Amino acid sequence: MGDTSEMSFWDHLDVLRGVLLRSAAAIVVLTAIFLCFKDALFSAVLWPASEDFVLYRLLGVRFSMDLINIEVSAQFFAHLRMAALSGVVLAFPYIIFELWKFIAPALYEKEKKAVGAAFAMSSGLFYLGGAVGYFVVLPVCLMFFMNYTVSPDIVNTITLGSYISIFTSMVFLIGIVFEFPAVAMVLSKLGVIDRGVLRKYRRHAFIAILVLSALITPSDPFSMVVLAIPMYGLYEFSIILCKRESNE
User: Fold this and answer.
1) What gap in Å lies between CA 189 and CA 245, rounded to an integer?
2) How many angstroms separate the first and last alpha carbons of the chain?
3) Is 159 exposed, middle or buried (0-12, 13-18, 19+ CB in 10 A)?
4) Residues β-bridged to residue 67
5) pLDDT digits (tens, 9 = 90+) for 48-106
6) Phi/psi of residue 137, each to 5°?
7) Structural domain containing residue 204
8) What 3-state DSSP class applies to 9?
9) Rg of the chain over CA atoms, in angstroms?
10) In this structure, how many other beta carbons lie within 10 angstroms of the beta carbon of residue 237?
11) Strands 158-159 and 67-68, bridge-based pairing
């Protein structure tokens, strides 16, 4: 253990306040930068809605969608929302670093190695999940929703707000879901769970993953499976990580 035992509750609270303030400052600075580069930001955000998106070209399909705005302030708040979320995404490694500095002194040396590795891995997993959502799940869902109609007399006209909502859920939420191996690794090292627990509830986890995939991608079974496969792969990867930690 570090020297945290000599610190009072208020000392710990003061250190945590510094962590939160520095993390918030990083998010604010990056958000301001994204606000200044609106064209570059929305070129990336709107790319899955254009026909030259990489997945559509790989599949050889012609797909694009036109977005409309029906509210006076919708475009302004869409810009603010995406700038803030992008700021959080880009600041994620720094936030993880700040959290690590906060908890590391309270860990034993044996725990620091595993927990530190999990914290380092978490950023990569977050970005991997975001990439899966952006390049695979989001465009698949867009194609399904745009081609699905209850009547040929009804034309799909998508608002900017609707697109931003599905973009956020597909990209950012999937990034968070992909954090599971890092969380499992930390809990395993701290003795909360072990690989036996994960293996015992493997079937339950498979059903839960299918349900979660259906909630995140409420479209066709194909898009649900596209998301469920890497998520279940991450669950199996978590078992391997927990096995390694238990061996150590």
Assistant:
1) 6
2) 19
3) middle
4) 158
5) 999 999 999 998 999 989 999 999 999 999 999 999 999 999 999 999 999 988 888 87
6) -65, -45
7) 3-247
8) helix
9) 21
10) 16
11) parallel
Q: Which amino acid is at 28?
A: V
Would you state the structure tokens that stand for residue 79, as one six-digit string?
A: 């810009």
Q: Are 26 and 37 spatial neighbours (Cβ–Cβ below 8 Å)? A: no
Segments in the chain below pLDDT 50: none
DSSP letters for 176-232: HHTTHHHHHHHHHHTTS--HHHHHHTHHHHHHHHHHHHHHHS-S-HHHHHHHHHHHH
Residue 227, CA distances (Å) to 220, 222, 224 in order: 12, 9, 5
CB 176 within 8 A of CB 130: no
Q: Reduced to 3 DSSP states, what percent helix, strand and coil does the chain have, rounded to the nearest 5?
A: 80, 0, 20
Q: Rounded to an integer, what distance in angstroms lies between the CA atom of residue 83 and that of residue 86?
A: 5
Q: What is the pLDDT of residue 107?
A: 77
Helix (H, G, I), strand (E, B) or coil at 72: coil
Structural domains of the chain, count: 1
